[in-house]
């Protein structure tokens, strides 16, 4: 990554230390060390008002809890925009919220592609809500995508943001040492991943499937895909229903159609 093409993902948060610690761990650390992407936790408090650095206030019309102020968040986003030369197309703003679109592998792929294609400095900012959330006027002015981790409430947007970042970064070229990992992972081909086994061969009388020990790669690949289809049928029938057979060999399309007819 050179300065003319710097790609960064930033978490705007009231808890920069623990977030930065995770951004500097494992695969995310490796991606930064390789110069593929820059990952930062930005302290929202540094944009706060008065000497107390306030970032929140009570909601108009009453209601429990506090809301994050639009003016404070706006200053933080103006600063992020300045970092990409003031070009709005080089900045994406994401807000994790229970009302957002579900976070899916497809959404992660869309953002990974956006990052890869950019030939100018670019930044994706994840605005981590806290308290009861953020002032609606901030969302309408800045937010490009509202995404949800699921139909449940967590205390803040940090964990959803970190999930999204982790999922995006592992898709960026050069991050994973074995490129097959992304292709074979659950969801990438519209199916759940096949079951896997390591040593010992015999665990409390349960043996590893024979086909995985024989070394016949064609047979192993067939077993993996077949098991993947059966597991998806059992765990995620919605994915079997939605699958159009794209990318599958002929025999697997026939099996897919048979499974679909049983739903
Ligand atoms: C306690 S929650 C606020 C929930 C909000 N009052 C509501 O009912 O929708 C605080 C913050 O956590 C984040 N959050 C909570 N649950 C989430 C979820 N399921 N997906 C994504 N973000 C979530 C959001 O950023 C939110 O602003």
SSE map:
Layout: E1 7-13, H1 16-23, H2 26-33, E2 38-43, E3 56-57, E4 67-68, H3 70-83, E5 91-102, H4 105-117, E6 122-127, H5 136-142, E7 145-148, H6 158-169, H7 180-184, E8 202-203, E9 206-207, H8 217-235, H9 237-242, H10 250-261
Parallel strand pairs: 1-2, 1-6, 5-6, 5-7
Antiparallel strand pairs: 3-4, 8-9
Helix pairs in contact: 3-5, 4-6, 8-10
The protein binds S-adenosylmethionine (SAM).
Write structural notes for this entry.
The longest helix has 19 residues, at 217-235. The protein folds into two domains: 3-169, Alpha/beta knot (3-Layer(aba) Sandwich); 186-261, tRNA(m1g37)methyltransferase, domain 2 (Trp Operon Repressor, Chain A). By secondary structure, the chain is of the alpha/beta class. It is built from ten helices and nine strands. The protein has a five-stranded parallel sheet, with helices on both faces. Strands 3-4 form a two-stranded antiparallel ribbon. A two-stranded antiparallel sheet has the order 8-9. Bound molecules: S-adenosylmethionine (SAM).
Structural features:
single chain, about 260 residues, alpha/beta, Alpha/beta knot, Trp Operon Repressor, Chain A, 5-stranded parallel sheet, 10 helices, elongated, binds S-adenosylmethionine
